[in-house]
Specification:
This protein is α+β, with helices and mostly antiparallel strands. The chain is built from 14 helices and 20 strands. It folds into 4 domains: 89 residues, Uridine Diphospho-n-acetylenolpyruvylglucosamine Reductase, domain 2; 118 residues, Uridine Diphospho-n-acetylenolpyruvylglucosamine Reductase, domain 3, CATH 3.30.465.10; 115 residues, Alpha-Beta Plaits (2-Layer Sandwich); 128 residues, Alpha-Beta Plaits (2-Layer Sandwich), CATH 3.30.70. The protein has a 7-stranded antiparallel β-sheet with strand order 15-12-14-13-18-20-16, with helices on both faces. Helix 1 runs antiparallel to helix 3 and helix 12 runs antiparallel to helix 13. The radius of gyration is 23 Å and the shape is globular. It starts with 8 loop residues before the first helix and ends in a 59-residue tail after the last helix. It binds flavin-adenine dinucleotide.
Length: 512
């Protein structure tokens, strides 16, 4: 699978076959149009060979078969809001864009299940089922743009995943296209299923196992009461202590989010929230459930906030006022544009009890490298989101930003945390996998991928599994989303000429 220049005979044949499968108007191949598909929300980029926009699951399967016949790699793409380079098409891939598959196909109100297409925008699902008193819980802060398919592939979280769990807890079944172009369901609309949990394996596989074409999701009843509280503190330590105290008191709020001083400064001129001038941190605590329980829990949270010296406490029950309290948090990342033209959002996880220490260390990294870092994050889950603010056009700054990202992830891992809370590994973190996983761990993961990609038993000639329809000339172990998750190949920052990453140590202490 070598690089194919646009306009070559090989590419023209591929384009013609894809046009036959989905119609001329749904194949994007002009270089100026392909620019849009070179990147996601991260800093890495690569040009696709061609982009195809199927209009049904069957057409998606047909596109996979065409790609097989042309020996091409495939990258599924939702809205391109991913933050780890997942949808960036390495190795001349055919991008299968799912944006036309954007319908809610069925809502079973009684059983609280919906069947949706993968290109449906996350927020649209809750909007469409709210008339039944239902909602879809996982709510990434990007929910106005990101798609359910992208959420499944990244096992996305969000502010309201603290109590209710991430995407995997809300997906009952998936219809997928595998490498041979076959369509099958993993799990289904029923809550109970027996056998291996292949659905569970597929969620979070970052587009490396196949293409999701339908999703059966669990819906929840809109709670009787939702109470949102916003507390300002004069120190980050006091806000972090409040997070620990709330959890230690046995409460599991629906959301427990934090913003630091840099974030507050970015938001003030955009949303004018009027936080106290001495606020160094703002916490948002949301409680939901039965009215009586929420009232009791709110009183307890108030007490904890005051005990930790909250300088201001705002509270709201009605939807418009609650949305006001959420506005800065939900729009914070966009507001960073008031400080710098670009941001790089690091996604690490640490045990909640380590939040204070780790945030100090993150600040020290920024100070040492001369970078401004804002923090806006899911504090209840210990899911940090240090947002490094910089100018993408200054190559030296990009180099420092990548270095800072590496250092922050190392700090998270050294503190007992993980490489990613919700944004996935993609290109961004693949070089750091040995920080957490041994070779044997990664081989086991690759073995699972192999099982999805080469599902057929060896034939009598010993030719091995492989692609049944339009058999490929090359092994298909990276048919879908090549160069992601595992170390090797194109590296993070390569688009900026950055190829070397600082030496680090594996779990066993070896240099990697
Ligand atoms: C401002 C901002 C805030 C964010 N906040 C959050 C947050 O709170 N929580 C969170 O988890 N994430 C957050 N994200 C990250 C991002 O929105 C999520 O990772 C989201 O799930 C990506 O969805 P997408 O449709 O944009 O997918 P894309 O970026 O298009 O793709 C992401 C990955 O999914 C794969 N993929 C997409 N569709 C399919 C499919 N149908 N079948 C198989 N694979 C597929 C792609 O190959 C790629 O690997 C945020 C991003 C931004 C820009």
């Amino acid at each position: 699978m070598t690089s194919i220049a646009p306009g070559t005979a090989a590419n023209r044949l591929l384009i013609a076959d894809l046009e036959n499968a989905v119609g001329k108007q749904n194949v994007v191949w002009k270089p100026e149009d392909l620019l849009l598909y070179e990147y996601d929300g991260s800093i890495d980029r690569a040009a696709p060979r061609v982009v195809v926009l199927p209009g049904s699951a069957q057409e998606t399967a047909e596109c996979v078969k065409v790609a097989n016949r042309h020996d091409a790699f495939i990258v599924p793409r939702g809205a391109g809001t991913g933050l780890s380079g997942g949808a960036v098409p390495l190795r001349d891939s055919v991008v299968i864009g799912l944006s036309r598959l954007n319908r809610v196909l069925d809502v079973d109100v009684e059983n609280r299940v919906a069947i949706v297409e993968p290109g449906l925008v996350n927020l649209e699902l809750s909007n469409q089922v709210s008339k039944f008193g239902l909602y879809y819980a996982p709510d990434p802060s990007s929910q106005k743009a990101c798609t359910i398919g992208g959420n499944v592939a990244e096992n996305a979280g969000g502010p309201h995943c603290l109590a209710l769990g991430t995407t995997t807890n809300h997906v009952l079944g998936l219809e997928v296209v595998l490498a041979d172009g076959s369509l099958l369901w993993l799990g289904g609309p029923n809550r109970e299923s027996t056998g291996y949990d292949l659905r569970g394996a597929f969620v979070g596989s970052e587009g490396t196992f196949g293409v999701v074409t339908k999703v059966a999701v669990r819906l929840l009843r809109i709670p009787e009461k939702i109470h949102t509280m916003l507390a300002a503190f004069t120190s980050l330590d006091a806000a972090s202590q409040t997070v620990s105290d709330i959890i230690a008191a046995g409460l599991v709020p629906a959301a427990l989010e934090m913003m630091d001083r840099v974030t507050i400064d970015a938001c003030e001129p955009v949303y004018h929230p009027g936080y106290p001038a001495d606020a160094e941190a703002v916490l948002i605590v949301e409680l939901d459930g039965l009215t009586e329980a929420v009232t009791e829990q709110s009183a307890l949270v108030e007490t904890i906030c005051h005990k930790n010296g909250a300088s201001e406490l705002r509270e709201a029950d009605d939807p418009a006022k609650r949305a006001d309290l959420w506005a800065t948090r939900k729009g914070a990342i966009g507001a960073f544009g008031t400080i710098a033209p670009s941001y790089y959002l690091v996604d690490g996880v640490v045990p909640r009890t380590k939040l204070r220490d780790v945030m100090r260390q993150v600040k020290a990294v920024g100070d040492e490298l001369g970078l401004t870092i804002g923090n806006v994050f899911h504090a209840g889950d210990g899911n940090l989101h240090p947002c490094i603010l910089f100018n993408e056009r200054e190559r030296d700054e990009v180099r420092k930003v990548i270095q800072a990202g590496e250092r922050i992830l190392e700090i998270c891992v050294a503190n007992g945390g993980a490489l990613s809370g919700e944004h996935g590994i993609g290109i961004e973190k693949k070089a750091y996998m040995p920080l957490v996983f041994t070779e044997a761990d990664m081989d086991a993961m690759k073995g699972l991928r192999e099982a999805f990609l080469n599902p057929q038993p060896e034939d009598e000639s010993g030719a091995g599994g492989g692609v049944a329809t339009g058999r490929s000339a090359t092994p298909v172990s990276e048919r879908f989303n090549p160069g992601k998750i595992f170390p090797g190949g194109a590296s993070h920052g390569e688009a900026y000429g950055i190829t070397e990453h600082s030496v680090r140590r594996s779990r066993r202490g070896d240099e990697v």
